[in-house]
Here is the input.
Amino acid sequence: MFPAPIGGIPLPSEFAGSLIFAILYGLLIPVLVYRLWDRRSRTIVFFGTILAVFERTIVLSLRTVATQRDDWRFSDGFLKYNQITLGLGFVSIGNDLVGLVRCLLVNPTYGYGDGGRYDESPAAATKDSSFQAPRVGDVDRPAERQRCRQFSFWMLMFFLSSNIPGSVAGGMFQRKYFENEQKAHLMMNLRYASSAVALFLISVLMAAAAWSRKYQPRASHKAIHRLFVLGTLLIIVALYRLSVMHHTTPAFESTLAGTLNSPGAKASFYILHLLPEWLCLVILMCFNTRKTFGTGPVGDRRGRDDTPEQILKRKAQKAKRDAKKANRENRNADPERHSDSIPLRNIATSSLLIDTRLTGSGSR
Here is the structure.
């Protein structure tokens, strides 16, 4: 007996389900393109989400084709690819939640005035952010900010490390290992480890958001509620995976109970695995995540606060940009004044030429 693949193998009976979800994921691609094109919502914080949109569209399209082709359905290569991507999809979205939580925790720590460093925050680079700007009396909290950055860094490292056992386990779905009990046992443990670690890390991120709501006065409740929804959807995926990993199968094509190829198992896979992931992507793509979490274009990329020299350099660059912007606005506000300047110069030049000719003709 070998561990049953999550979602089973693509059977002809699930052609409609695969096709519908391939279309649903594919419809997110135009939204994604718009978010990347519009500078008001463009941010690289959800890079994993971008990959998930394309990856899910591709794998479900291939799965739809495999429901009608036996050579694809029983291919070791397709089975490995299918299991690896299914295992890493919700983890990649969790990676993006780390970047969002980092902005959520860091933005409220900046204080008022020049000493408050608010211009360094990602929220300051976000127009109409859901985070309130510091007011008089709001003190800067650099130590808390640094702890939040260290916490986010290690959370990102742990999320990335959880990909390793999942990738190894997915790559072991091969027929040559089917009668190898040692390989089967190892693969089952690796799958459990990957999903369990991801479940724990998502729970920690939600706990961090709850801490922000309680202890950070200027925390964005809108961003916190959004994170709770996203975290809950990902937890559903993780719990589903953990609940079905104990199932085994005598053959990949078997439809016996417990092989995850039965109609009920297929329905559970689409409802509890693919649907929550799709809803996460809809929330991240269809709403302005940059504005909600105050991420700016790149999120909170600083490992530590700027030095005095970096602050002076940044302010000089900002003053230069502001001057150029004001100059452009002045030109746009009074175009006739600037358009008339050239004809006036031409008139003066023409008058000078006429005077010169008249003087020359009078002397002759």
